[in-house]
Fold each of these.
Amino acid sequence: MPSAIVDLSGVRSIANSERSSVNTPDDVISTPFGLSLIEIQGELNLPHEAPINVQKNDTNAEYIRNFVTVDEIKHAVNFGQLQLDEKDPSKVTLFIGKSQRLLGSIVELDLPLGVMKIPLNQDTSPENGNEKQKEDIQIVDIVRKKMIFKQRPLPIMQ
Amino acid sequence: MKKYSVYQQISPDEKYTYKLLQLPSDLLRHISDNETDNLLIKSSTSTTSNPGQLVVCTDDKTWKLRQMNHSNTVLLLDNQNIVQHRNDNNLIGFASCSYEYELTDSKGSIDITKLPRLHGDELRDSTNNVHAVQISVDELLENSPISRQEFFHEWYELGGCEIDGRAYILSPEYITEVLYTLITALISESFNYRTDTVAVDTIHQLSKKQSNFADSIVTTIVQKFTVRSDKPNEVSLDNDKIAKWFGIHVLSERATSLLSSKEFLIQWKSSLPAFYNVSLDLHYLRGYYCMPVEDNLIYINRDHLSTTLSARFVELFQLDREWNYDDFVPFIKDLVPPGVKVDSMILKFGKKKKIGKDRFVVTPR
């Protein structure tokens, strides 16, 4: 019967302690390990591939500018800008492109969420010649709040 | 006003996937308090009719794991300002989570249906299955959706033992025989079963002297019918549990047809070892009998009752149209969903009526 070990060593220190001090906006939206959780009602339609070999010209320059390379290998697309409210630290606004904005809030989760990092495609069979030690599932962070956008998008008038 | 550019990775990570697991407060406490203990995700055997059950276990606790899907977009974002100490205010989404794993308290379970039954030197196979599973206790633990400590508690409760590396379930008759012999041996050594404690090693030595039961069988009996004492490696007898065990045994053998409660109490008393005078009360046996006729009882084999609540109500009302409330509740208690009151289930499938002062009965609707 398959069973899997979940390694907790990475999160023991933060399991039962809230962040001791909230000094910066980063502390408001992220965990001490730097993770944030965002929830948007409905679906976010994003491109499925980056325009890697596309020639840049006047018509697509702005579109291509939305794409970046993370850690020099992974492609990511910019889909918006998050803005924290200066007066009310629990309010956030997410601007999607140039025409829509979403009003949201930062809420405490009823139950904290452990972020499980699960290795994929582990082949440990001896006949494969590379009998490596199987990598365990890890809980790499504990998220206690999320940014939630429950309302319909509002138009931005320009 | 602080602003962040929000990105989402186009293609998912090829080496890892990320999932969200709800962490109840007791699990959080476990994570922070235990320096070395990790979690274990286990599953029960899946069959064509039963897809199997996933559980999450610590060393001493079990939670049932359920996937909760949702239709919202939930993104996990990496704030590069924090760990990478950048100052470019970028949030990079690296995983999209279309569900969360929910954990709910569970007692865990051990499937013993295919294990061989042991009756002394005679091997009685379970359910007449000649292909009983040959498996060690360690393998059974690995295959059972339950934590290690809960497993061993439940294993001994079920009468499990390991002989020559194979797991067996002791037959109820054999458990009664070994228990009877051990109590008799203890009393013959002037052991006061009401107050004294005894070293586990002494029980093993007495067993060798009397009948030479296998050590693992004696261990099962000790674990099942004794309570740990404050003194190291010493135990005292759990007299109520022992009395109940003998009571159920007599019920199952003698009360297959109506038996007067007086006659039953006499037979129950005579089934106990000599000089073992513990208090006997019919209340101990609630959940194992019904009284369709005043002061006459009949044994009910719980293994033959349905495991769905509505069907069990029907079966119980077929046995008796009017149940004493206190006699009825033990039959349904284990099927009532967590967080639901027993009475609300009684009102759903039957009626609760007050007859006289402080006396209630349960009847069909």
Amino acid sequence: MATLELNNLHAEVAEDGGETILRGVDLEVSSGEIHALMGPNGSGKSTTAKIIAGHPSYEVTDGEVLLHLDKDEFETDGVEIDDDLTWDLLDLEPNERAALGIFLAFQYPAEIEGVTMVNFLRTALNAKLEEREELFEDDEGEADAEEEDDAGYDTSPMEGDVDEGEVGVAEFQQLLQEKMELLDMDEKFAQRYLNAGFSGGEKKQNEVLQAAILEPSVAVLDEIDSGLDIDRLQDVANGINALREEVGTGVLQITHYQRILDYVEPDYVHIMLDGEIVKEGDADLAKQLEEKGYDWVREDVYETA
Amino acid sequence: MSTQVHASVDESTVRQLSEELGEPEWLLETRLDALDALEDLDFPDVIQTPGRLWTDLADLDYDSLVDPLGAAEEKDQVGPDGVEVLSFTEAVDEHEALIRERFGSVIDPQTNYLTALSTALFSTGTVVYVPERVDAEDVKVRTTMNSRSLFNYTLVVAEESSSVRLLERQETGEDVDGDRYYSGLVEVAAGENAYVQYGSLQNLDQTTYNYQLKEGVADTYGQVDFIDCNAGSRLSKSSVETHLRGDGSETKIVGAFYGHEDQHFDIDARVWHRNENTTADLVTRGVIDDESRSVYEGVQDVGRDAWNTSSYQRENTLMLSDESEADASPKLIINNHDTEASHSATVGQVDESDMFYMGSRAIPERTAKNMLVEGFYVPVLEEIAVDELRDDFERLVRDRLDSRD
């Protein structure tokens, strides 16, 4: 069981006189839950997602981002830990957050020429496994860490040569193929360069594929549904539902539209306005919103306030 | 005009060199003419920005760098059956008429001070001759320089409807006290409907000053491709030029360099469109790190008679350190309106959003940067036909990345 917790999160653009974007966001996402975060453009949804993942362009001025991991979360890592752990994500680098199980599906994924999908994804998976070991060892004290260092790093002065790592090439090919089938992706994707020349829909599918490979505890999906035709929308929704059911991932889904929520039904809906969450409810709230629009929320909130 | 005077080199030096190599009279005369011309010749063109001459070739101390009679090297010259891969001396013995016809036909020995110096003083070289309709893969010329200076000459002749893919590489062997100088001239002639891919890998040690000029001529439907990889040397001036003289002729000029520490690279890629229906694609990618510097000049010159020209040029320099410096100048000169052309050059650092994307997938900063740099070279590596060149350049890049602090 994992829980991502945002407490009173305030943030601004990281530059002199940077604009304030978040004004006290509170949110909790636990394993197996599906949350929808909705709101008009500029309300702070994407910023919230980027701050969770550690984007350097934003500065957190107040509040905290915590990740609670129950001890059962470490069993697969072969590490024995006696107590539940809480991590302050704001102290960690993006790759460390990812290793702990945070995943961000980008609204606009980077296009990286010259790096094949298969190489990128295997490197990512091995980096995650390796980094997890390090993070948990750091937490458990020096003695264990030294032992593991001796065992693990003799042959790899660089952090993760592409030819090495826990998951070998053959094993990874198998894994990748399975996940691609699930998302109805052509196997040729494996040899293409990361997002380079991908259509908008292919990029979104690829984000879900990456989540399926990395098996996150909490996945933040930033407009994963925008620009998808109905077939792709269904593939992507299947991928998200499989993450919840098979991996137990908690999902925070940022969207403008009710459409994807017909396929991925949220347990909780949060509506954001001007850097705060102003209204919360269940799946019905999203339907109401679709009918009445954000003006309804605005009137409702500011009248009662 | 140069004011350099060579205490160590005079007419008797050239005569002795030519005699020891058993050369015919015409070649000696060509050498002596080049020697005579030195005092009137300028140094190769280099880019100048306000207040700054990026590469000062005139400032080198040629007197102490040049020692033609002490030249020493190891050389492999290998190729498949059906194609002749000869040392220059053998080639002059066996094919004097061919050499006399072709020598200096692509590069005028008196192009500049350094080409003339190289012509007067070269003591070693290779001739690759591909007869009509012969296809040759994997011709390799490997030079290990063991002396203070080495002047090298290469001639590649591909006859009608033949093809050849070759690699020529330079390294340094035994150490020498002080600085060294390597000079290489390469002439490539592709006949009608012939194809040449000339790849080079320069990995001289960082005490060596390096001057190379490679020029190709493509006849009707002929194609000359160059792949110019530079990793070594203290300073390199490397120019690659193709003359598209035949109707429908083509060229690709592909460059890759990786500078670190205090290395200096001055790279040129130039194409002269001189007939109808010609195509050129110039692609150069370079990385600079530490205090290294790079300067690139690309020229696409479309002549008056070059109807229906296609000409494309892209150059990208990636800076890995704040102390490195780069300049790039892509030039397009069009004298025939029936031309489709593009040219661009960029100098920049590793993209921050790419880094964040990779970080968000658990990939640590160092690994992410290395992957991006290796990926950056891929469009260049994909063009290379000789495995040894691609594999070895890739390995050089990886070793450099691994050795970063």
Amino acid sequence: MNMIIIDLAAFTFIGISHILLYLQLIRYPRLSLKLVIPLGIAFTILLVIVVTASGYPEFNIILLMFFLLSLGLLKKNLSFSKSLYFALFSMVAITLVKMVLFELFMALFIVSPFHLYVWTGNVIHFIVSVIIAFFVVISRHPVQKITQAIIDSRFLYRLSYFLLAAGLMILFILTVPAANLLSFFYEEYGTASYIAAYILFFLLLIMMLISFHLTKEQMLVEQQKRSDRELLDYVQKLERMHEDLAAFRHDYINILLALDEGIRTKNLAQIEKIYHDVVAPTAELLNNHELDIVKLSRIAIPEIKSVLSVKLAAAQQQQVKVLVDIPDKIENIRMPVLAFIRMISILLDNAVEEAVRSTEKMLQVAFFETEDCQYFVVRNSCKAQTVDLRKIYEKHYSEKEGMRGYGLFSLKRLVEKMNHVTLETTFVAPYFTQTIMIKRQ
Amino acid sequence: MSIFIFEDDVFQAQHLKNLVEEICEKHQIPFDFIEVTRKEERIIEKIPLTTYIPIYLLDIEIKSEEYKGFQVAQEIRKYDPSGLIVFVTTHSEFAPISYQYMVSALTFIDKSLPYHERYELFEKCLLRYDERNRADSPADDFIVNTEYTSLRIPFHSIEYIQTDGPHRLALVTEERVIYFYGTLKEMEMADGRFLRCHQSFLVNKEKLSFYEPKQRAVFLKSGASVPVSRRLVSKVRQALKGE
């Protein structure tokens, strides 16, 4: 009886790992662990009932396949071939790993001085399942990256598709099937399939290693591309501003000519008219804060400059009035640059989102240092009349659906890691201000 | 009490002086003199002559020197840490945040605003100036200056300070929250005006309103509530009676 419970637990872990891995592969993060675990348990129980009732172990694989494919329907824009590929990947990879690990552990156990009991196999099965589930949970990002690399490289994709399909066949044969045709295969090619499974395992492992290598290179290329693109945006922005300025200079000469005429004829009414119609509106042009973005050149840290220029340009495109206040050169930042970029990205994303929805549509960014502190200030107009300043930093708080609350929560977590960083939040309707203060150490 | 106006355009300077005089008359704000100048030395020389806290109205852009008014403000701060500084400028390309922080300026007034809006802003500043000079203890700032943080907050605005994780504090006022590094013990030692009402709360005595035994919490004038530990109830009651 105990053994059955242990086996059932092991199956549940494996079932959960299948579902988790598949969800990670199709990049569908919206099912939380809390949901996946009961789902896995329910599915395992269903499987056990079906398999014992029907007496056909091959239902194991078929049902799992269908279950995973139907989970794939949750995700939009996922083609069937991809969904099938990921389902195959999840099934074959986990089953093979389980098999190899099980054999390995058994072999180790036999070599070890411990006695072999009837239940040893079950316990090892359980341990292996737990290990697999654990690794599936922690290795989310690398798995996604590696599969992405495989899919991007056509050759590897096709090759692995073929291998996985072959793997599925082997799995079918190895489940000790009851259907006539399959059981014939099992008796005939059982040992061969076993060996084939091992070969397949190592082939897939090698492929993984290759694609892991590929992802690294690809990431470098992508990063390069992104920074090139950002630089290009920045240059284009500068060019546009220069054109605006040139156009204004041209207009200005015409304005002077018109005024000159008025003054020559001492026609006060005409001068007044020209002033109101032509001269006064130019004040607005001069106050045009598009030019503000040029001040970003005072930041000597290229990564920060490019993040700021991209975010601010995006805000301007959404008709937000952007004011930039960087009075002096910023040579360095007194914390890890990456952490700082994460912080300001969160602040700016939230501020822009909020400013777009407000009536004033205003965003102000200041970056400066005093004798002993560096300040980064983001101020935005906002729609809300009241804001609970403590609540916005809680984990699941959100003004609207979306990741806003979560962003601020991780911002606070980042700040807490650094003793010399202070975070200040002020709300005086309709302006919301957040300040990061970094003390010199 | 003295008022300084730093402006290089004669007409604007005269106009601003008239405006200030008008407001002062309206609210009967007394002053010793209004010094209108375009030379920063004149201001620096006259600082020692001032009684009480002066107010400085500074134009940022003087004779096409973009930062002049700002430099003058920094110079003033060397001699007068508590005077009110107000920037008056047309240079709207420069947003005010950094100036406000760097010389702790009171505010920033745009010259190009319509007359009545500008009037209201100056009125507000001068009333604040008057209030600052009347108050018994003008410097009521709560100052934290440690290895890790530098804060300066008007004490009367603070509601309470709470622990927020290991060595992390949250200082709460009605309109802002500051998360910084420190311990409640340090804060308690730094300023006697706080009342320890809970293991992890320091409350501003001036803000207390009433104690609610059922929730074991003390309510503040703003409506916020702060928990009170059993051990410290008597102290809170005492503080409430003392009011």
Amino acid sequence: MTLDLFLSLAVFGIGIITMVLKNDLVVKLIGLGIVETAVTLSFVIVSHTGPLPPILTLPIERVDPLPQAMIITSIVVGFAVLALSLVFVVYLSSVYHTTDSRKLQKRIKRDEH
Amino acid sequence: MSTDLVLSPILVAIVLGTLRFFVKKRWMNLVELLSIASFTACVLLFQKSTTFVVGGWSSAVGVELRYDHISFWFILSLVLVWSSVKMRFEKWEPSVESMLDYLFASMYAVFISNDLFNIYVTIELTSLIAFLLVGHGKKPSRVWAALKYMFLSAIALNIYLIGTLFVYYGTGVLALGALKNIKIPEFGLALILTALLVKSGMLGLSAWVVDAYSKSETPVSMVLSGMVVNAGIFALIRVYGLLPDTLKALVFVVGIVSAFGGAIYAFGEKKFERILAFSTTSQMGISLVVLGISPIAAAIYAFFHSNTKALLFSKNGKISTTIGAFSLAGLPPFAGYFAKVILGKPFPIVSVLITFVTSIYVAKLFDNARFNWKFSMFEIPLEFAILSLMFLIPFGGPIYTVEILVTVAIGMWLGKKISFPNFGDPFGLEEGIAYQMAFLAIATFAVVKW
């Protein structure tokens, strides 16, 4: 389990690195998606305390249901954040015809002055 | 019965906010204002401290809620700032008004939650509504500020979730009341601490603060600086008791750095809103330093800060700007003075230095303010709150008053005379993520025993 947890944290790191190094906003959003998936994955790994589903089985060999109940909430929240930021990216690209974050920042700064 | 009373403002706010979508009349604002404020006032007046679990589950499984004196101060500042924003009667579309109601409900839910996962859900709800409000108006600079806010905040909350997961993995419970007597994995606490510091508006860690606060509309700035930033500091107050000593020292260091760094960045700014935005990072840093003294002191500091900053961000006229600026600097009859007195008892030198740097940039606010002698209804709750601490806390003694008066006078004189160079703005999106990761590495290094 420790190795699996470590690997899922590595996926988290990949998502963060994508968000820092890539300039394209859509790629940054994909990086955010990878981060959220990594969190989901680590929750699933920790909840895997047995091979059986949590309904009508002994507490010893079943899957822990509480992390799964929590992760459903955070999947929904993550979806909402992704969808809303995609709307903002679409709006910005419709005004400036680019999704490159550096170009966008430059043009927004120039428009203000 | 008593638990129903605590939960009633959330229900009222959600029902009225949903109703506001369909009843598109201006008088609905008054109905929302009166009913939500009166329900919250009932809670604040009559409710005693309670801890309860929703739905009658055991606290190991259910969601634990807690109303106590820390919640009292936060809910009081929440309802004051929220009702003053509502009392502006902006010519907004009805959807924004109902978003404000939902924001009230989710902020209230933050301030009564006592469970690590519940804090995550409510803070994320609050931030989602805040993103929409920042982006409102569809100017590209606003949308960019909202997008930056979303990216940085989403990363922080994912870090928070992993921290929650480690705490659950090590202990099996998430309710903060049950966690007090158990040994908690310190790595998880380091992750949670990082995320909450990012959410509570520290310099550098929350790189969105300056853009989002200075570019959004005036009432939205009031909401952000008066309400939304309090969510992070409240969660930090709740978690602070669980932290090991190394992380407590780290919180103190971050508070000092943010307090002085934010003030130094505020010197170089010319625009009114940008000075106030850097001032927010500075003041939240001070409230972290105060958190080391006692949780209730930090709650009172946050109360003072949110009312003062909402009054200043409203940019209404000379009266509001003067009262807000004097309170921010810490002059005696206003709330800022009592906040500084609380800080001054254990750390006298830090308190005097903070008062000094604050009064330098407060003097710059008067340079910028070309306002007239205008007074509006919505200032009344905020000004009342700023003056009300006078009756609640006994005076700090004549000696301390003289010290503060002299410091503020020298600081304001310096701020009038000297102009500082602009220190640039190294708080872009990528830099913000890098600062978060660097702090995460430091926090991990502090707890892992090699």
